Amino acid sequence: MPPIIQVKNISKSYTRDSFAIPVLNDITLDIEEGEFFCLMGPSGSGKTTLLNLIAGIDKPTKGNIFIKDTDITLLNESSLAKWRASNIGFVFQFYNLIPVLTAYENIELPLMLTHLSKAEKKQHVEAALNVVGLTDRMFHYPKQLSGGQEQRVAIARAIVTDPLILVADEPTGDLDKNSAAEILILLDRLNKEFKKTILMVTHDPHAAEKASKIRHLDKGDLI
Amino acid sequence: MKIFKLVFKNAFRHKLRSFLTILGIAIAVIAFGVLRTVVTAWYVGVEATAANRLVTRQAVSFIFPLPYTYRDKIQQVPGVSQVTFASWFQGVYIDKNQFFARFACDAETMFDVYPEFLLSKKELETFKREQNSCVVGEDIAKQYKLKVGDVMPIEGDIYPGRWEFVIRGIYKPRDKTTDATQMLFHWNYVNERIKKETPERAGDVGWYIVKIKDPSKSGLISKQIDDLFKNSNAETKTESERAFAQSFLASTSAIITAMNILSFVIIGIILLVLGNTMIMSARERTREYAVMKTIGFSGSHLIGLIMGESLVISIIGGALGLTLTFPLIQGLEKVIPKGFFPVFEIEPITIILASIAALSIGVLSSLSPIQRALKMKIVEGFRFVG
Questions:
Q1: Are B157 and B199 in a shared domain?
Q2: Is ipTM over 0.85?
Q3: Under the phi-then-psi rule, with left for phi > 0, alpha for psi from -120 to 50, and beta for the rest, what region is B145?
Q4: Which residue of A has its CA nearest to B1?
Q5: pLDDT value at position A135?
Q6: Domain range for residue B200?
């Protein structure tokens, strides 16, 4: 079976004040389906940029990215948005929950883009809440939750559409040790129990221990 | 969860800010409504004019009289069906603050030429019969609690002396725009007294009102009338009743224009206020829009969210403003003397304009934040520090 993610000769550079600043240099990478893949590297190494490219929220300067059989570098913004909605679940370092929505409503947010009935949406949200163990907090607002709970809501939001790939950018970066451990256990469970392909970016070696494969980036080069 | 719920929640994320913005819009709509009502009230005299009526006045100025003898000559002009006349009497009723129009008119023909003044047959006959009688509009009768048989004493100024008129009829307005604040009495009664007291002023009338058979011939008939009196001591200027009413407004056109401009300036200011609020809101939510785009929300979703939020605020503000405008106008109607604005009420066009203005404010103020949200790249949105 071919890898679920195929990154082929990807380069990315940003232009600042008419200077091109290279961030990624000719990266080639395969990630197998069901893998818990961890990208590590110091700040500025380009790991978040690579994650963003694979997740389809940024475009490479050069190269191709195949997710299953789709070359996402060829998709326009609108198609890419639709593709992300059904294929990618995102977990951010700072949770990025909508403060005026309850935990339930935050998790329901991606389902607004689907044609599911109200009952089906409820079923999905409750299932996601159950997986992250927050059924008792579903009507709480983000400010009424701890950091760890917020991140669990964010994970529930990421998995509620049952995406192909879960991408997590420093998911434990803003959490205390205990909460971070809980999140890592949860991600590990999603990988092992629910067979989710996970691509995680971290600079925390402890967090990386859960991953089945680890690669390092340094100054835009995969080592 | 429907997208509208998210729109509504976003609109009231900062309750005080939203409340103040809504209040600002409501006040702007009230100000707009009041100013437009004043402007339409100003024009009500023009709206009440009839196409089949011409007004013949002294060519030099309206304040100079015309000889009574012109009447028969005008009546002979082809296309003229009836001629009546009136003189501005003015005078003081109770005190100088009690202003309403008082005219000495031709009792025999006045109500034929002005069918919009509804008077019962019995009242009209009595009015025509009694020389010292008068007819008042329904609004004036209500305001001063007058009834048929009451005597209205008027202290004359243009026509000096004390005048007493017995009310023999109270006319009702046929149309919404009909002025029901006039007092009409016999020109003959006034003229007979003037003959004795100041005979050199006798036999003069203020202006003629000429009822014509075919309004499309008003230009031709006007010319024919004016030609009759060319090179006389009192040349005439005949024009449609509408043009005559508009010429009255010409002297105040600067004020009306200023009020018109002001009403739209207010809308412009509130547009900036809501625009600023929306820009601030959208700026604060840059990361959220980035998250939503990441999740898969498209440009049209963001347009719906931002414009929806702006519209929620502007619609609530507009609705609140319009709701409060009605009692305010009713209150002002009671305070403003009837004689100044015979008809002072909110016109449907004012409601439509205010509603359009509120909706336009909602749409326009969201354009800049929408453009910003659409142009924003997701990765830049995540880097944004508000």
A1: yes
A2: yes
A3: left
A4: A105
A5: 92
A6: 65-233
